[in-house]
């Protein structure tokens, strides 16, 4: 008798998936855009959060009908960072996020974090969850293309030495689900980033849970025997 | 030959439907709740916006597992008002909202605004859109029950002297769509409050548009001959 197929690895997005930061990022982007004279309704910013900055700027160009210069893009990013820092003291872990990661660590289930944020944001997020360098992380600075390209999740699976086809991507946005499909991983959605259940399902989510706490309660549905 | 059935009247929600205020309300509620020691993930607040305050407090009780006293509820509402006032300078009309209302007025299509907000909020919103008392408004203070009860929309139809069955409710939340169904009006959803298209469809929206500008472009789909 063989040993059977291995347990799947879990590859987690960070913002909106483990920490409750999406809405703060959204309003920080609104303030940054407004300071640059760009008037975009907030829901459109929400639906672009989590995609790569380059694609976000292209989407902006389409919505506003004007191309942004490299200088404007750099200024926007700086203004967003400053605006987000003002919001950041209110940002909290999502319910069950810490407990979920502790449980997975305790049971020896391989997992990593793959975020479109940079190294600093990733570290701040993990610290908020009570973890440090013991959690493998792939951040924006470590890959050429961010989501919905699959690069972040491919790199995270490599870091764990697990085939991507045996991995489950957990994220709150359709960009996570699209990246999961392109990577040939399984996608699992969380409602905690503010997308609707059906949006995530239509983007390929095999299951959708409310928050990390709800996922922790249903690990059996992902075939994780803990 | 008869004159045919009359044109439908349009009954508009305000926040998230005509003005881009939902995300600011969401973070104002988060700050108010946190100041009262209530830790609720932001997406759950988002999905409760637009329902009556009484139901919102009940939902809070379920999510947090504790009942709020009347005193706590009053403090919460006061803190929310203060937090929203800090956000309010950034709030803008939604794209096309002003043009849509101007077009309807110009063509003589009956319409009104029906909002879960109080009289002051309703007036501030309309002023932002460039209108005053020429627009019929039903606000929270004028009915016994707010959404998803149908009272606000029923009162708005009465104000216009149009049967509710000949009215179209335009809103961004499932509470608007549920109130429309309960009132036996037709519901039309807008994505500008941050709900997903399918959430609104499943709650009964006959059509879903992006924003007021998109609705203005498709008035023919609602049978409005302008």
Characteristic key phrases:
homodimer; 226 residues; alpha/beta; 6-stranded parallel beta sheet; 10 helices; 11% strand
Describe this structure as you would to a colleague.
The structure is a homodimer of 226-residue chains. By secondary structure, chain A is of the alpha/beta class. Helices cover 46% and strands 11% of the residues of chain A. Chain A has 10 helices and 6 strands, in the order βαααααβαβαβαβαβα. The longest helix of chain A has 18 residues, at 70-87. The model of chain A has no long low-confidence stretch (mean pLDDT 93). Chain A binds chain B through residues 20, 22-24, 26-27, 30-31, 34, 39, 41-43, 46, 87, 90, 92, 94-95, 191-199, 202, 211, and chain B through 20, 22-24, 26-27, 30-31, 34, 39, 41-43, 46, 87, 90, 92, 94-95, 191-199, 202, 211.
Question: What topology does this entry show?
Answer:
Two copies of one chain form a homodimer.
Chain A: E1 9-12, H1 22-35, H2 42-48, H3 53-64, H4 70-87, H5 97-107, E2 111-114, H6 119-128, E3 137-138, H7 151-160, E4 167-171, H8 174-183, E5 186-190, H9 197-202, E6 205-209, H10 212-217
Parallel strand pairs in A: 1-2, 1-4, 2-3, 4-5, 5-6
Helix pairs in contact in A: 1-2, 1-4
């Amino acid at each position: 008798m063989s040993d059977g197929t291995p347990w799947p690895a879990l590859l987690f997005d960070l913002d909106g998936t483990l920490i409750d930061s999406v809405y703060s990022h959204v309003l920080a982007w609104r303030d940054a855009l407004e300071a640059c004279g760009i008037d975009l309704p907030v829901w459109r910013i929400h639906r672009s959060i989590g995609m790569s900055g380059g694609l976000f700027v292209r989407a902006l160009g389409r919505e506003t009908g004007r191309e942004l210069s490299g200088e404007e893009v750099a200024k926007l990013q700086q203004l967003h960072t400053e605006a987000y820092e003002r919001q950041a003291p209110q940002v909290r872990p999502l319910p069950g996020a810490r407990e979920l990661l502790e449980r997975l660590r305790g049971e020896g289930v391989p997992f990593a974090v793959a975020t479109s944020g940079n190294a600093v944001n990733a570290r701040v997020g993990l610290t908020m969850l009570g973890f440090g360098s013991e959690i493998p992380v792939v951040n924006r600075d470590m890959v050429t293309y961010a989501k919905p390209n699959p690069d972040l999740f491919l790199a995270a699976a490599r870091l764990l030495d697990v085939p991507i086809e045996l991995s489950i991507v957990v994220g709150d946005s359709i960009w996570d689900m699209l990246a999961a499909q392109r990577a040939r991983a399984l996608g699992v959605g969380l409602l905690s980033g503010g997308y609707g259940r059906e949006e995530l399902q239509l983007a390929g989510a095999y299951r959708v849970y409310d928050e990390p706490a709800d996922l922790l309660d249903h690990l059996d549905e992902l075939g994780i025997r803990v």
